[in-house]
């Protein structure tokens, strides 16, 4: 599709889209598999260009960037919002999501042994207990837990997790990306104009 570049597994990136399977998925539904996208991570060429600036750092530290989410078709977004129907996790209107414009990614760093660095939560604030609650329609507990995913969250008991979160934050800023406007998801980064008319929605 026009303007899209696929990220594939290599010496710098690992692709493991959470909505392509169910093992790390708050909704419990492999939505990307259901719609035929599968585990294929696409980003806008401008986002791809920004990610290339990470390569020297990743090579020098023997780390990789794990891609949990990238471009999201509109239909997939709508299905996800139906499963967690509360604005603040998925945007209510799919057309407003930078994922649907291929201008956002959800990521974490992994070390030389393929182990993910620790953060205040897992990506998407995945938690088995809250996933079961969410899938049964109970959202309150999860959204309270989601507060730990904020870039402003701090506790003395998570020094390593917060250090890793801040490292990722600085890396993304250095390559020209920004967090969500609400700063409530440490794993989410996007182009500065990701939500503007400069980048229209891309769909099947």
Fill in the keyword field for this structure.
single chain, two-stranded antiparallel sheet, 204 residues, 7 helices, 4-stranded mixed β-sheet, 6 strands, globular, alpha+beta
Question: Can you describe what's shown?
Answer:
The strands form 2 sheets. The chain has a 4-stranded mixed β-sheet, with no helix packed on it. A two-stranded antiparallel sheet has the order 1-3. Helices cover 29% and strands 13% of the residues. The radius of gyration is 16 Å and the shape is globular. It has helices at residues 31-35, 45-51, 55-61, 74-83, 128-135, 140-145, 159-174, and strands spanning 4-7, 13-15, 41-44, 64-69, 104-110, 188-190. The N and C termini lie close together (8 Å).
Radius of gyration: 16 Å
Let me know the average pLDDT: 96
Strand order of the largest sheet: 2-4-5-6
SS field, number of helical segments: 7
Distance between the termini: 8 Å
Query: Would you list the SSEs in sequence order as H and E?
Result: EEHEHHEHEHHHE
